[in-house]
Amino acid sequence: EIVLTQSPGTLSLSPGERATLSCRASQSITSFYLAWYQQKPGQAPRLLISGTSIRATGIPDRFSGSGSGTDFTLTISRLEPEDFAVYYCQQYGSSPLTFGPGTKVDIK
Amino acid sequence: QVQLQQWGAGLLKPSETLSLTCAVYGESFSNYYWSWIRQPPGKGLQWIGEINHSGSTDYNPSLKSRVSISIDTSNNQFSLNLRFVTAADTAVYYCAKGPCTTTTCSGIDPWGQGTLVTVSS
Prior knowledge:
The structure holds 2 protein chains of 2 kinds.
Chain A: E1 4-7, E2 10-13, E3 19-29, E4 34-39, E5 46-50, E6 54-55, E7 63-76, E8 86-91, E9 98-99, E10 103-107
Parallel strand pairs in A: 2-10
Antiparallel strand pairs in A: 1-3, 3-7, 4-5, 4-8, 5-6, 8-9, 8-10
Chain B: E1 3-8, E2 11-12, E3 18-25, E4 32-39, E5 46-52, E6 57-59, E7 67-72, E8 77-82, E9 91-101, E10 115-119
């Protein structure tokens, strides 16, 4: 099973600041199979990015993904008030599919 | 635009069977894999398993002995059964599309609204 580790656990930032979230895998992942999700309280997760860097339909371009091998990054260039949420990375190239524990982005 | 609507019992006693169903609207059922994911209160996400239109399944090994996912292509629905539940199975259960089609993969999207299932005596 591929274990995903996310850091930091919590990121406290102000609107307008840049957020950099990390996801590290216990073994190499083909870039095609790495996704990021956003979850707000009481809501289902929402797909932001698949294939490491491909934004899902309707996702603003302030969200970007990068990385390869075992290290991947989600960047939010300028935080908007609606971006404060929990973010999960996920690998879907190897069964069982696994999620990271999440990074909470909260308001400083 | 594809939409998923799920339903099922929300309160179970230990040793009972959890049963949830998810209906798919607005999408060709046959082109995709369909997943179940759960999230214990205040915790992270766990993939339970998936099924495709032909009934081929894949399960998380941690649940494989108790779980079964089935499909009803005539009604565009798929279902989850989890046997012998305990308090540790208390979670919000989501149905979802993906992450793969018959030819490619692009993440899990969209997700159902979620169903809170509580296991308590």
